[in-house]
Amino acid sequence: MATSALLVMDVQRSIVERFDRDGDYLPRLRGAIDAARAAGLPVIHVAVGFRTGHPEVSARNASFGRIATSGAFAEGDPGAAIHPDVAPRPEDVVVTKRRVSAFAGSDLDVVLRAGGIHGLVLTGIATSGVVLSTLRQAADLDFDLTVLADACLDDDPEVHRVLTEKVFPRQARVTTVEEWTTTLAR
Question: What is the Cα Rg of the chain in Å?
Fold first, then answer.
């Protein structure tokens, strides 16, 4: 049984369209997913989603209050679907979250504990959003953490750099997809 899992977070159609301007993110992430599967590591997709009408969103929530008024990420929103280039396979777990962290408002912790998972490899969009929030919470929950810096994406390259080079290394190993897949193949 694998003791680590690859988390693919918020790689949803409308988010990818907003962030992946150069088009090289998805193929790189796909390489990490393929390597994880080849090594027998579970791949867990985490997606932000809400019920119709967004009853989970308070108007006081600065991040999600605007989403609620737009109707985005509600059931049936095609933009909320996981991007087809990294689509889950039947054996993958898909977790729906209601806040920024992959743990907040989801059953991710239950899934990980039930699977005996104590190591997480983090990827996703955005570095300053879901990756940062999940890393902080996972560290507090005593998970062993790795961040694939080039499998994370942020609107602000400088924020991404500061997080991956200065902040994340305090709580996680930070590496690249190529370095990580080479290690897995050994």
Answer: 16
